[in-house]
Structures are given as C-alpha cells and as structure tokens.
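Sequence, please.
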C-alpha cells in the first residue's frame, strides 16, 4: 500500500500566532492540541482490540513519550519533529501480536483500522484545537501579566 502526501492549507495564520507565543508555550499548545485530536483514534482502537492478555486495553492511549525501544526505532526511521504525539499501546508485546498476528493467531489490525477511520477527522480538527489552545495560553498569559502588575503596584 503506497501512501500519498497529504496537502493541508490554512495553517499560515496558526503559524504566525504560535510564533507570537514563547517557544515552550507554543510547543505545549501544539502537544495538547495533538493529544486532544488523537484521543478519538485511541478510543476507537480500545473499542475494537481483542484482549489476548487481558491487559492490552489499559495500555492504549495517546502520549508524547515512547518506550526506550520505541524511541530508538523512531530515531532510526524518522526525522525529529518539533512536536510528536503517538497513538498506540504501551510496551505490552501483545499489541504487536494482536495487530500483526502470529503462527497461532490471525491478525486483528485494530490500530490500523482506527487510524484509517480517524486520521482525516483528526487532521480537520487540528487547526480548531490549536486555535483553542492558543486562546487559552493567551488568556493565561494575560492573567499572569495582571497578577505581576498588581504585585508591582503593591510593592
């Protein structure tokens, strides 16, 4: 199966708004937005995965962190991005057996199917989620500036 590039438009305004935020705040805004839009894919995965070991569903989620093994594989196979979020199971080896099968078990590609069903919705929702996070970050910054100004007036 070959993948074709996905063209996205309308992110220039988001990029300018993110540039107005401090670098760490911009990164956190994007992380929170990515986690928010990927969560429905994780929910779909949890709903459709079989329980080979009884523990697999509890490890499924969205995270910006990988296990050491996953991180090493990610470093080998991909260029480093400014912000990364991952959907899948934790370090449970049953996840791989469930997804791809084995000699004794047929594959049940629950994660691939969840991704195929949800990636377009996630991409469409990403801009809205980033804007919402930017607005929250700006509101937090405004409140912090007001607190600092009040301290200065008292002090």
């Amino acid at each position: 199966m070959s993948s074709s590039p996905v063209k996205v438009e309308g992110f220039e305004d988001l990029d300018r708004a993110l540039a107005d935020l401090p670098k760490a705040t911009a990164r956190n805004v994007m992380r929170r937005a990515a986690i928010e839009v990927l969560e429905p894919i994780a929910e779909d995965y949890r709903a459709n995965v079989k329980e080979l070991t009884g523990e697999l569903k509890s490890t499924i989620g969205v995270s910006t962190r990988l296990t050491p093994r996953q991180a090493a594989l990610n470093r080998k196979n991909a260029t480093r991005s400014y912000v990364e979020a991952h959907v899948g199971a934790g370090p449970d080896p049953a996840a791989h057996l469930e997804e791809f099968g084995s000699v004794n078990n047929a594959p049940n590609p629950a994660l691939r199917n969840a991704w195929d069903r949800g990636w377009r919705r996630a991409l469409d929702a990403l801009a809205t989620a980033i804007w919402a996070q930017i607005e929250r970050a700006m509101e937090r910054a405004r409140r912090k500036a007001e607190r600092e100004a009040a301290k200065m007036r008292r002090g």
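The chain has one domain: 12-154.
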